[in-house]
Write a structure and sequence with these properties.
Elements: H1 20-31, E1 36-39, H2 46-57, E2 62-68, H3 76-90, H4 92-95, H5 99-106, H6 112-126, E3 130-136, H7 147-159, E4 170-176, E5 196-199, H8 205-215, H9 221-231, H10 235-250, H11 257-268, H12 277-285, H13 288-298, H14 307-315, H15 332-337, H16 340-349, H17 352-360, H18 364-377, H19 381-397, H20 401-408, H21 417-430, H22 435-446, H23 452-464, H24 468-479, H25 489-509, H26 513-526, H27 532-546, H28 551-563, H29 583-590, H30 596-609, H31 613-620, H32 628-637, H33 644-655, E6 656-658, E7 661-662, H34 664-676, H35 685-700, H36 704-718, H37 724-743, H38 747-763, H39 774-785, H40 788-792, H41 802-806, E8 809-814, E9 819-823, H42 824-832, E10 836-838
Helix pairs in contact: 1-2, 3-6, 5-6, 17-18, 18-19, 19-20, 20-21, 21-22, 21-23, 22-23, 23-24, 23-25, 24-25, 25-26, 26-27, 27-28, 28-30, 30-31, 32-33, 33-34, 34-36, 35-36, 35-37, 36-37, 37-38, 38-39
InterPro entries: P-loop_NTPase, TPR-like_helical_dom_sf
Protein name: AAA-like domain-containing protein
Organism: Kaistella pullorum
């Protein structure tokens, strides 16, 4: 017998059992008239239903696009673009040639819904079949401000079929664990009510038997029926228990009803920590209304349970969708694990002890809710002050220091008075209030080594004092403390690790290298897994400064991250933590002539912690990091993995030695890269500002030749771009070119640039104050027109070329009163020297 019931992420076709929902979904897709809305509890096979539809219903004349919306986008336009990009990327053989048209649509800065509709129409014009867009985890959108717009746009696609016949071939399938009407935040808008609900229920008895048959389990009909008696067809439970039975069969055991009972008891009825029981119990814990409803069902008193609560019970996986005819807990396991005795015990858990437990485990948001409820009910000064103090600590750990201060700025009378003063001072330091450090210094000077809070005060005084010797003395006080009954050993270990780390940094600044490495090694010996990467990185940086070999330490750092399968750290005690924001620092740390460590880290993070190589490279290229060595490496060794925007970002970072120092050679490469890819790349506001900064620096550094050269490059580039930003930047680039020519005494060219500058300014319809405001425009006009040879040379305009100009017949009036008619080239020198003016 082979193993069939493996731990699949999604159920394969040979094990999938179709239910009523599958046939309903097929009909909706075949008809293409109304969107479907799959409404179901978690862990009921919702995603498998959708993927099975894609697997079986997709064809050469029908594309089915599955999109998981739990990976949220920050704004509406990115959400729409993700849908469009997914359609194209999954079907490049069909849509690749229209991607330039999509980019063109996006470059017009139209409203997000308009851009989305135009892109959809382009796709539907290219493909003459049906397109079904499946949006899974749609309830995740509820946390975003733009969610109403998404649902309004979906409704609009159906109502717009009159105007756009292509939309007849587009439909949506939405899926989530929330009622459609609850998705709309603004109740003044029409609710999303045009979809057909699809309820995904448990296996029927026949479907249960079909699954047993497909799984090839060699068990009696009696045992199969006994499983159904327990589980009542819950797909997740059926699969998991049958998988346990399969393991037992593979060991040569015979399966009886008693064995089934034992397997179910051991899996579900002891620890209550497996799906879906753990999820259901957690939902019930946090919903008093739900608890009361379940008590009523368990007591057969269901008359007063509202439809709203019934729908919630269904969405939480507690009852079936047929809740209007027979209201009962859906199976024996869920009934047992949500019994009245347990529900009553939960009431007692909503207590101070429960809140403290949440706080201790780092569930700060949940702890705040419980603490605040207790604070309203409690009349004891002792307990009230403890609650207030712990609410403040929750906000402190969440980084909301202002709210923490509100709770801590209180005259505590109990034993939390000392600790509250310390955390008040720490919070003030965090928001930049110098009074916080003064308070900590006063606390430390009084001396009290019997609490972890006091040691935290010492640590923060040490790391905020500029006196290195004084800081070391303070840190020595912490590292010398022994474990005792007053101090939590884990917290003490963390403080000692931090202290040795900061001592290492102080010795590094003092160039006492052996001491610095020694302190860092001690910190490493004390460290926990989440801080070890920072300490290894610190060691690498010290060894680099000393010119010592770092390969072994780099390999140790990377091997540790990979072997421990580290995730991003939530701790921020150190200047650099192993998290998304600080990734460039870690990659730069392991970079060297031997790129093995870098490549291993790149593969691990791209595959396990991020969505792929593109996201990883995007994080490395965050402009605030500005690590040239890293960019040079990506450009040389990862060039094949870079897209256009990433290549341009690299050249831009390499151009920026600092905000006041632009590498002009690299700037030229940056402009060239944009020019080559101008059809695919949309210039961002930050690009325009960077270009201006670079051009103005050429003037400030009196590098007038470069001012002319690169202004011309920029002007050539911007002639291919038409928008308000490009018009503004073109005007300033022309002005900078004029300044360069003026300073180098290129008078003919300066006259032409001056006139072009004025024309460019005239082309601006509405000023962008961040680039050019009314006063700056007026200042440029005055400066340009008040130079004599510019003011006098009225013949030059943007249409003249130099050869035409020099042979043109003009009438000039000299300062002596003499008037002559001649070719321009004959009076050019006198004109530029201010001896005459052109009157005709």
């Amino acid at each position: 017998m082979e193993r069939i019931l493996k731990n699949y992420t999604t159920i394969p076709d040979h094990l999938y059992v179709e239910r009523q929902a599958d046939y309903q979904l097929k009909n909706i897709i075949d008809e293409m008239q109304r969107p479907g809305y799959v409404l179901v509890a978690r862990q009921m096979g919702k995603t498998n239903l959708l993927l099975n539809a894609k697997r079986n219903l997709e064809s050469s004349k029908r594309l089915i696009i599955y999109i998981d919306l739990s990976n949220l986008y920050e704004n509406e336009v990115d959400c729409y673009r993700n849908i469009i990009d997914t359609i194209i990327e999954l079907n490049e053989n069909i849509f690749l040639e229209i991607t330039p048209n999509i980019d063109q649509i996006r470059g017009k800065n139209t409203p997000p819904h308009n851009e989305y509709l135009r892109s959809l129409l382009l796709i539907l014009q290219k493909f003459d079949g049906d397109i079904v867009i499946i949006l899974d985890e749609i309830d995740a959108l509820k946390s975003k401000t733009y969610s109403d717009n998404i649902f309004a746009q979906i409704r609009s696609n159906y109502f717009s079929r009159t105007n756009y016949s292509e939309l007849e071939r587009l439909t949506y399938i939405l899926s989530g664990v929330i009622e459609p009407t609850e998705l709309i935040k603004d109740k003044n808008k029409s609710p999303f009510n045009i979809g057909e609900k699809i309820y995904l229920d448990d296996f029927s008895f026949e479907e249960h038997n079909t699954f047993i048959y497909k799984s090839k389990l060699q068990i009696s009909n009696e045992c199969s029926d006994h499983i159904f008696e327990w589980i009542n067809g819950n797909p997740r439970m059926t699969f998991d228990i049958c998988s346990e039975i399969e393991k037992s069969l593979l060991k040569g055991n015979q399966i009886t009803n008693e064995i089934v009972d034992e397997l179910i008891h051991n899996k579900y009825l002891i620890a209550f920590d497996v799906a879906p029981v753990d999820h259901i119990r957690e939902l019930i814990k946090n919903d008093e209304e739900l608890r009361e409803a379940i008590k009523c069902i368990q007591s057969n008193k269901t008359v007063h349970i509202t439809d709203e609560i019934k729908r919630k019970l269904y969405l939480f996986g507690i009852i079936s969708s047929d809740f209007n005819s027979n209201l009962s807990i859906k199976n024996r396991i869920i009934s047992y694990t949500t019994n009245i005795e347990w529900l009553n015990s939960l009431e007692n858990e909503i207590s101070y002890a429960n809140a403290i437990s949440k706080y201790s485990h780092g569930f700060y948001h949940e702890a705040i809710g419980t603490f605040e409820a207790l604070l309203k009910e409690n009349n004891s000064v002792l307990i009230s002050e403890q609650i207030r103090y712990h609410i403040a600590l929750c906000y402190y750990h969440l980084g909301d220091f202002e709210t923490a201060i509100e709770y801590l700025d209180y005259e505590f009378q109990t034993d939390v008075e000392f600790d509250s003063r310390v955390f008040l001072a720490l919070s003030e330091i965090k928001i930049g209030n110098i009074n916080g450090l003064k308070t900590l210094e006063e606390i430390v000077s009084n001396g009290n080594t019997n609490s972890i809070t006091f040691l935290m005060a010492i640590l923060n005084v040490a790391i905020n004092t500029p006196d290195g010797k004084k800081a070391l003395d303070f840190l020595d006080l912490i590292t010398a403390v022994n474990d005792n009954i007053y101090i939590n050993s884990k917290e003490l270990q963390e403080l000692k690790t931090l202290s040795h780390f900061f001592k290492s940094n102080i010795y590094e600044k003092q160039e006492q290298w052996d001491e610095s490495i020694n302190e860092n090694n001690i910190a490493l010996s004390l460290s926990t897994a989440d801080v070890r990467p920072i300490l290894l990185l610190n060691k690498i940086n010290i060894l680099k400064i000393l010119g010592r070999d770092t390969n072994d330490t780099k390999q140790e750092l990377v091997n540790f991250i990979v072997s421990e399968r580290l995730n991003f750290s939530e701790q921020n005690y150190y200047p650099v933590s192993f998290n998304r924001i600080n990734l460039p620092v870690f990659f730069n740390g392991v970079l060297g002539s031997d790129t093995t460590a870098f490549d291993i880290l790149f593969t691990y993070i791209s595959t396990n912690l991020l969505k792929g190589e593109k996201e990883c490279i995007d994080l490395l290229l965050k402009e605030e990091n500005n690590i040239p060595e890293l960019c040079e490496y990506l450009l040389s060794d990862k060039r094949d993995k870079l897209d256009t925007s990433q290549s341009i970002a690299i050249y831009r970072i390499l151009s920026s030695r600092s905000s006041q120092d632009i590498d002009i050679v690299k700037f030229k490469l940056y402009i060239d890269e944009i020019s080559v890819n101008i059809k695919d790349y949309i210039l961002q506001e930050s690009d325009y500002m960077f270009i201006l900064n670079a051009l103005f620096q050429t003037i400030h550094k009196k590098n007038f030749k470069n001012a002319i050269t690169y202004s011309e490059e920029v002007l050539t580039l911007l002639r291919q771009v038409e928008n308000n930003f490009s018009t503004h930047v073109s005007a300033l680039a022309q002005y900078i070119k004029f300044i360069g020519e003026l300073q180098l005494n290129f008078k003919i060219q300066a006259v032409e640039s001056a006139n072009k500058t004025l024309v460019q300014l005239d082309n601006i319809k509405e000023f962008i104050p961040e680039i050019i405001d009314v006063s700056l425009a007026a200042s440029i006009r005055d400066q340009v027109t008040n130079i004599p040879f510019v003011r006098n040379n009225k013949i030059v305009n943007q249409n003249n070329n130099q050869s035409t100009l020099r042979n043109q017949i003009v009438t000039a009036k000299y300062n002596t009163g003499k008037i002559i008619k001649s070719k321009f080239k004959h009076i050019e020198k006198d004109l530029l020297d201010g001896k005459c003016i052109i009157i005709e």
